[in-house]
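FORM 7B: Structural annotation worksheet

SECTION A. Query
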Amino acid sequence: MPGILDWSTYDEEQVRLMSEMCIVVDENDNPIGAETKKNCHLMENINKGLLHRAFSVFLFNSESKLLLQQRADEKITFPGYFTNTCCSHPLAVPDEVEEEDQIGARRAAQRKLEHELGIPPEQVPLSKFEYLTRIHYLAPSDGLWGEHEVDYIFIVKTDNISFAPNPNEVKSVKYVSKAELKDLFANAANNDIKLTPWFKIIVENFLYKWWDNLDNLKSLREPKTIHRLSAQ
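SECTION B. Predicted structure
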């Protein structure tokens, strides 16, 4: 229960980040308020319908390889899981609630690429973020924590980046080809590799089609669509 959380069992920095204010939305992604990251991720609240806005970034290099990260063991939700390049939340602050051209989510994505991976903002200008669509999903992490998000999906294509992962956020990073990602998914269970539920949803429903069209993504954009999908 929220009232008896023992924060001493969690990483101090990750606990601090739980006080950030997320954007609470309805099922059509209309903002209806703000709540702490902690409250947005407690299953007790998720089971009552609490839903927040998020984003997921997929960064590709010129060889069409995708940059993956493994979440740090310090993370409160899905620690040690492999996932896409960067995934987090726009905050309930003026710069990140702005909706025209998804600018608030783009700013949040740029901010978190620097925070998690050390990628300087000037190396990933907002114009580099190609918006594809949104997904709405719910996924428990353990008995206490989970995710319930409307997730904005962005693809970035660039070679001109330097990164220095924040060890409190990211355990490891690697670029993978399409074949390598398919192999990772096919053998995850046998190799004791954990994959985040949103990453699995996006890969299994959308990613390979986008990957085949990295030079023609505009034709695949669904700016007004919210896909309702279930985590397995």
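SECTION C. Observations
The mean pLDDT is 95. Strands lie at 21-25, 31-36, 52-60, 66-71, 82-83, 86-88, 130-140, 146-157, 170-176, 226-228.

SECTION D. Sign-off
Analyst initials: ____
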